[in-house]
Specification:
Blueprint: H1 2-12, H2 34-42, H3 47-59, H4 62-75, H5 82-87, H6 97-109, H7 113-126, H8 131-143, H9 147-159, H10 164-176, H11 180-193, H12 198-210, H13 214-227, H14 232-244, H15 248-258, H16 267-276
Helix pairs in contact: 1-2, 2-3, 3-4, 4-6, 6-7, 6-8, 7-8, 8-9, 8-10, 9-10, 10-11, 11-12, 12-13, 12-14, 13-14, 14-15, 15-16
Amino acid sequence: MEKLVKVIVVGAGLSAGVLSLGCRRAKQPPIDCGSLVSALVNARQASSEVTAVKQAAAAGNACDYAEIATRAALNADLYALVPKLLDAAPKDCKRASTLLGERAEGLARAAETDKAQAAAQDVLRTDPTNPYAELALARVAYAQNMTTKAGVLAAKARKDGRGVEAERWLGRSALGRLLYAEAEAHFQSLLRSNPNDAEAAFTAGVCNDKLGHYMQAREAFLQTLHINPKHEMARIYLVVLTHNAGFNDEARHHLAKLGEVIPKDSPTYVQLERLLDGNSADGGPPDAGAPKARQGMVQGKR
């Protein structure tokens, strides 16, 4: 167990001084929760998720803790921790359908597509409404560019209780089909669950830009930068967005801030600088003016 904790801490780049975070009073926690809580906080996960992990550890039921801790790791995109948490679960609950479904989703997130699909299908034979297995298959379908199928599976996973992560994949599926209003609604739902979700804020901005909603797009990109001040794409969008709207002073402000994140002699910076100097055409209507959305533009892999 001590080795597992060290692996998690090193992987999250966290100091030992912040490990407890409320876990020290746990009644013989079946798995030390301090390092996981630290990683969740570092990933800016919702406080309710952090509290659930602490409470599960304090309750002392190892099987329940494995389920709740693994779900939290999946939701925070700490996918490398998923197999470690599941492997640390007691033998008498490792074959529980919930844990097997979580393992399938973890495999899908780790891009082990064939293993994820086989594991998910195996779970669904005995547990046809397992939300983790359903979302695993949604992830697999999305990876195979079957966005409609991914949306159907994600909707089923949400109905069966997968919650925020199902909402994320519903949003991604809609975005992949150019259904910007629908996608934006899903990402706004994510933000209501966790205002610190950088992907949700940024992609809501992308959708609003594609819909021609200048103010909503600008606010979403600013929210993204509040969450992650070094979010390069949000800053790039703001440069072009505000320039095309005629707010050149603000555009230059965002370009200067971008210069603190990327080299000023990089092709991206130079191109934007030329845009503001009037030597390059902008994106034009019908968008609000930011760079065109493209596959893979959303924050992270998740």
